[in-house]
Amino acid sequence: MKRLLRLAIVDDYPVVVAGVASFLASECIDVVETGALTPVITDVDIVLYDTFGQVQGVGIDLQDFVRDSGAKVVVYSWNLEPGMIEQAMAGGASGYLSKVLTGPEVVAALERVMAGEIVVITGENETSVGGAGDWPGRSSGLSPREAEVLALVTQGLSNQEIADRVFLSTNTVKTYIRSAYRKIGVERWPQAIVWGMANGFEPDALRTVDRALLGRPPAAGVAAT
To answer: What's the 3-state SS for the chain?
Structure first.
C-alpha cells in the first residue's frame, strides 16, 4: 500500500490552517496541522507554507523552514505576483502553488515535488477569485486579497510597507483597503485595527521550531548516529 504523503500546514492564523486542512481532507494526504504554538514535526514530507498575513522577519520565515527542516517547502498562496514567486524560489522553496487549484491538482503538484521537481503553478492570474480554504473576514464578505491586506494593516504596516510585502503598487493597496473598509464598516486606520484584532486578524503568536525534532527518524534497520 502506498504511504500517505505527510503534510504540515504552516500559518499563524488557525482559521487558515483549518480551512486548508478541510480542503485537503478528502485527498490522499496525512495532514499535520501546524499553528503558531505547535512546532513543525520535521518527519513530514512537505511543509505547505501559507503566506496569508505573513510579515518577513517576524517569527520563522520561509528560509528558516528550508534550512531547519528535512522536509521540502512549498508555498501556497493567493498572491501570484511574479516578484513574490521569485522571492520564494530564491529562498529555497521547492514549489509555489496557487490557491485556485483544485484538491487533485494540489496533490499532483505535491507528488511532483516529492519526485524531485521544482513546481510552480499559478493557475488563474486573479488573486481574489473564489476557492476552497478559508480566511479571516470571509463571513464579512472580504475577498482573500482584501483580507490579506487588512491582516497586514492590523499588524501595523503602512500602505508602502504592505505594497512592498505583497508586490503591489501603493495605489492598488489603497484600493483594496478602501473596499475592505466599506465591507467592515470603518473609515479610518485605527478603527480598522480595532476591528481586525476583534475579528481574528491578529496572528496567534510567534511560531517556533522545536530543535529536538529537526532530525528525521532513522530508517528501519539503520542505527542513529
So the answer is: CCCCEEEEEECCCHHHHHHHHHHHCCCCEEEEEECCCCCCCCCCCEEEEECCCCCCCCCCCHHHHHHHCCCEEEEEECCCCHHHHHHHHHCCCCEEEECCCCHHHHHHHHHHHHCCCCEEECCCCCCCCCCCCCCCCHHHCCCHHHHHHHHHHHCCCCHHHHHHHHCCCHHHHHHHHHHHHHHHCCCCHHHHHHHHHHCCCCCCCCCCCCHHHCCCCCCCCCCCC
The top-level CATH class assigned to 138-198 is: mainly alpha
* pTM for the predicted model, two decimal places: 0.79
Q: Provide the grid cell at 124.
A: 488563474
d(CA 189, CA 203): 18
Cα–Cα distance, 94 to 121 (Å, whole number): 12
> Which CATH architecture best describes the domain 5-127+205-213?
3-Layer(aba) Sandwich (3.40)
Could you state, in chain order, the average pLDDT of each consecutive group of 10 residues for the chain (225 residues)?
78 84 82 66 80 64 61 88 87 90 91 94 64 79 92 93 90 96 96 94 63 43 40
